Amino acid sequence: MENRPYNLSVWRVNMHDKNIRQESVPESWIRLGGRGLIARILLDEVPPECEPLGEYNKLIFSPGLLVGHMLSSCDRISIGGKSPLTGGVKESNAGGTTGMQITMLGIKALIIEGMPVDNDFSILYLDKDGGRFDKAEEFRGLGVYEATQRIREKYGEKSAIALIGPAGEMKLKAAGIQNLDKDGTPARIAARGGLGAVMGSKGLKAIVINGFSGEKAPIANPEAFKLAQKAYTKSLLEHPQTALYRDYGTAAMVEMCQAFGSLPTRNFSAGIFEKAEDISGEKMRELLHARGGASNPTHACMPGCTIRCSNIFGGEDGKMIVSPLEYETIGLMGSNLGIGDLETIARMCYKVNDLGLDSIDVGAALGVAAEAGLLQWGDGVRAMEMIDEIYSGTPLGRMIGCGASLTGMILGIERVPVVKGQAMASYEPRAIKGTGVTYATSPQGADHTCGLTIRAKVDHLDPKGQAEISRSGQINMAGYDTLGACIFAGFGFAASPESIRDLLNARYNWNIDTTILQSLGRETLTMEREFNRRAGFTKIDDRLPEWMRLEPVPPHNAVFDVPDEDLDMLFNW
Amino acid sequence: MENRPYNLSVWRVNMHDKNIRQESVPESWIRLGGRGLIARILLDEVPPECEPLGEYNKLIFSPGLLVGHMLSSCDRISIGGKSPLTGGVKESNAGGTTGMQITMLGIKALIIEGMPVDNDFSILYLDKDGGRFDKAEEFRGLGVYEATQRIREKYGEKSAIALIGPAGEMKLKAAGIQNLDKDGTPARIAARGGLGAVMGSKGLKAIVINGFSGEKAPIANPEAFKLAQKAYTKSLLEHPQTALYRDYGTAAMVEMCQAFGSLPTRNFSAGIFEKAEDISGEKMRELLHARGGASNPTHACMPGCTIRCSNIFGGEDGKMIVSPLEYETIGLMGSNLGIGDLETIARMCYKVNDLGLDSIDVGAALGVAAEAGLLQWGDGVRAMEMIDEIYSGTPLGRMIGCGASLTGMILGIERVPVVKGQAMASYEPRAIKGTGVTYATSPQGADHTCGLTIRAKVDHLDPKGQAEISRSGQINMAGYDTLGACIFAGFGFAASPESIRDLLNARYNWNIDTTILQSLGRETLTMEREFNRRAGFTKIDDRLPEWMRLEPVPPHNAVFDVPDEDLDMLFNW
């Protein structure tokens, strides 16, 4: 592998011929990784007008540029393709061990293409010598948890696994791709945009990545790397938010959103929830401490992470119910459904994980279904039954598993919180208007991880200036997603931007400056916008739903009133 | 009314304030009617990006320019708005008595706007003095047949009625608007594109039009009009196709399509059907003659029509099963589902009519559902059960009632015969490629009435030149739809184009020439394209589904291979 640039190569997997080829990295791909590289590959290789579940779409795995070194919060895997949910560009990233191990095999991008013959169903096994396909009939239809267990029994416990659940096999549009965390639990889902359905369409149940057959990614200048790592870790640990997430996980956001009136409640009809306290991070921490056993309020999803924002939600019997329980799930499956009980939400989350679904889009779909009268607000039992119908593939189940947009269309409901067909996360955009701008304009569809603005020190209800805040957030996040850095790594990098420069230069023997994060971010967004443009997107797609401009949301009784002109100028930089 | 141009005015109905205003016709609307005027009004008044079932959409009724004089096949009503099915411009027209009676009230366009308060549900009654709103709670949820009967009992039997069934009330995306034929049967549905859902969103069960309180539309030069009418009728009756439709109705197309290999069979997986003979026009004629009673193979939907292509399908007991049974329904609910029995198809059609749904999109949806295994090919009993679920509003029922596109998305099926979300009619576009061009490029979505090319004397399998044939058909049809002329009126007008000129000049005291049909057609298409462009459509929307380019259809094993360049140049005239 020595003469390959940076010891990395492109692995190309054809599902039709069942062959795996290793190719050198094209010049224009070298300085990209993760989300940015996925956008590049989509532009270079995937016809933008193609059917997302058809022959011409590709499923791409690419670790970010900083992946492979146990930098805190920087070993994420990006997965992408044309989205069956939005019809546009899609990158969804996850923590866990996939990013690290794929890098240990020297893979810069794993490109899965073509369609299987005769509904053939496989597991793709990869190690340093290449890979092979194994028949996966025995795993067909299995939930993620059982499938993980049986795949680990067969392939060993050290490998990373990326796999789909029944939802991906059923080609549901809210299906994601699960990844194992450092404890071997399928807990880190690349949830958004239906990439699990793309994997299902390729006839792939799982990819087993035996990274330890390979070696740690080389570093051009180890000393400089170590110094930069130290600077980054220091500024990360010194950031006050870091401690907050260590203590309460992402669930810390419940009280914060409640305070801002931005906690989506009863299908986004309100921004505060009378039982917010019962589903808060404080409540969860207290509960998990008291329960002990498997419960763990402070858990790392990747080796080396110092933030440890994840958690294990255990039952009274000491056994794990689900890991993790994130704020997004709590919001969409809790307050958004009028459910004020963490244990119910945790049990719902377990099933949605097991199906291999995006809990945001499923939670939003259940909210829309409640609006249509299919369940009562707060009725966790009925919500659980509806999730069970996804397993059985009834029209109701499939509808919910396709997410909020299609559920709204079928049920004739207009109050559907989606942009580009993808559900909004647990941040009410009429109360946090900068995030509304991100939802509206992100090439990914509504997605808080593309530029959450809630921490900006501004009046979030004032429409003025929100586009600038969103723009800056979107550029940074596209940059971080290209580095493989978690959203929380930004706490560290923001305080020491030179550490990004130094890490990249030391790793790759480059000579870049501190503008790299923004230049990667801009380049990535530009490519994504171009893919969407070619796929038929126009400015009309960069809008929040009409009802959010008309219907005031309590407690601030705010509507979304950022002018269209601001949205349309967002990417004119 | 004397000083209003041409004695016509615009009637504007606000569902929020419940008021009805009569306005003079704006200058730029005067020389338009029907489909062309709807496009103009949409461009002038409806924000193209608006939510189709929301506050800003409008429902427009407009008779064509030649309506009101019992010219054979020329009294059609055009209904339009932004389509909830396609998201674009929509005009759907129907025969029956609505066009004539609305013209007798001097209405050039009836524009229904705003949203009702508190889920208020009304009947709009119109007569020469204006109109009023009556509470319609007693009619809520009623099928079209029973609602018609009860509305006629209440308002008298002479008025025209445009009404929705349960599907429109449920805001299903394949809901149409039913109109009465000359015998008072709700048999003439403006079926396509979900306009029934728009009417449902406006809280309107029915519009009762007491045309006979008004007067026949005036004619500027009656003598000249009579002469032109005579010329037109003569050339219409002399056309050989006219006799064919009189004898066999539109069902004559079954054998013709079978011969071309373009009869959609088993969800468009084949173009010939082994039981085609059993569902043919010949078979139907034979059956209806033998049965007698209510059966009538040669029936006119509008007073004065000399073609009489419609029929009444009676049972063995002499009672009506449904009226009419059209080729489109026979194809989509017959061969497309593997059902080779006319009586079964007639009974399915009755229910779909009663629900107020488009039998094309529902038939296509059932075909997709069969592909997904929800019913067996040829199983009419199960198909009927599934239609019954639409009444009960189950997720399955609602899905089918939303048409083929959403059904395919929910069920994860790719072989879905739609363009712009609207189902193709019973003409396989890989075998009749010019019609494929029409499906792909029409601003209305897949719609055979926008430019059917099957009668062109060309090799329908040769991709060359199909765009030109489709273009000419689309221009003509947009012209006819603006005149209020039935697709079959073209048999007469094509042979005597000067009669269009003479009729219009005599009617309105204009001074136009024989290019009027094409200039109306081009103007209409240009406005429709512009509305769609503003609504976010791009050339990517002007494509057949990908699988139709990849999957050969028997018996000719043809794929759709008209080049994209031809599609993109269609409207460059």
| First-to-last CA distance of chain A | 40 Å
* Quaternary organisation of the protein chains: homodimer
Number of helices in the DSSP assignment of chain A: 22
Which pair of chains has the greatest number of interface residues, and how are they split between the two chains?
Answer: A-B, 39 and 39 residues
Which structural class matches the secondary elements of chain A?
A: alpha+beta
User: What's the CATH architecture name of the domain at 5-213 in chain A?
Assistant: 4-Layer Sandwich
Give a quick account of the main beta sheet of chain A: strands, pairing sense, barrel closure.
6 strands, mixed
- Strand tally of chain A: 17
What name does the CATH topology of the domain at 5-213 in chain A carry? Aldehyde Ferredoxin Oxidoreductase,  A, domain 1
How large is the radius of gyration of chain A?
22 Å
Low-confidence stretches of chain A: 1-5
Lateral strand order in the biggest sheet of chain A = 2-1-6-3-4-5
Q: Work out the helicity level of chain A.
A: 25-40%
Tell me the name of the CATH homologous superfamily of the domain at 5-213 in chain A.
Answer: Aldehyde ferredoxin oxidoreductase, N-terminal domain
General shape of chain A: globular
**Share of β-strand residues of chain A:** 5-15%
CATH class of the domain at 5-213 in chain A: Alpha Beta
What does the average pLDDT of chain A come to? 96
